[in-house]
Predict the structure.
Amino acid sequence: MSTVMPPAPDSFQVRVTAAVKGHYQTSMRRSLQSVALYEADRCLKNRYSQLRPFQKKYALFATAVDLLSTLDFLNEYHRQEIMFRTNASKEPLAPDLAWRRMKLITREINQTILPKAKALLEDDANKEKSHDVICEILLQNMFEENSEKNSKPYPSMWEFNHNNVFSVYRIYFRGVTLDPNIFPARLLRMVPVPLKKPDTFRMAHDASSLALANLTINASGRNNFDVSEDDRRAMLKEVKDHTELLKSFEGIVPDEEIAKRKRALYAALPPVPPPYIAGAVGPVITGKRQRKKAKVAGAAKPLIPSIPAMSIPPVVATPEVVKPEATTAMSIPPVVATPEVAKPEATTVPETTKPTAMDEEADWENVDAVVKEEEQAKVTVAV
């Protein structure tokens, strides 16, 4: 025997899921934002009297975010995307702007939808039709008015692209009045609000609800080599946390957007610590331009550093050796005559080129002086 499942209880989740047919597209962003803000306003009606004006705006924004978290067909990025100020800027919606948009929802419905619905329901042929059929007729009439194409049915996404409050009418109205059988508004939690009005209305989110548009890090310290060790560690940890969060968006966010965010994170990495060189004085030159300047400056300097001049003792001249005077002739025994051999004629040397004993001694003194200078130069280089 088959059992009949009871109908699901009427709730915010059930009606919103039925309105979008259980799936989300980017063109639905503003419509779902309007639905969340409208329902958040219903949930906070009884609490507004206890809050100051700026606290009401904070409570409205936070409650709308909580309501989106209950929709199972949305992922984390979709929930953040719905609460963007604009889809192009991807900046989070400010609480004061969320409040103004909520106030415009009822006025837009009263001006753009209810007059057309009233005219449609005055026809007896439409009085017995369901609310969903009435919505389809209204959308077709609005499409024909805007496009002047009477025979063509409206596109499936036209409801969300051209009138972001129509989903609110579909969910909360019946005819020209609010649905008397609407589900009761239920506040999910008591939203904490600041006691003092802050300087900015930007909401601070924890890591679990961090918007992809907020994945930016101050890169001002990128070229600052005076970053302390603690600051360097903190910057590395922040980049690591954001990188891990980006991985959770893979397959959801386009790859180009993920790559762009990663490049921004890598650009925010702290500078590499300068290498340690023993005995180095002053900062170590690591940049290409600095190394080139240092190379040019070093080319003008001598390879051997200058050292204090050393006193070199003067070279003492070697005393001239006194030659003995010629002795008197000694008696030599007669030489036996030998056959006369023809001797070559002696070449005559010019008198000016004949070396003398004094010239040879001076030459040796010059050689000694040159040798001593070379030895002294070697000693200087060694020192």
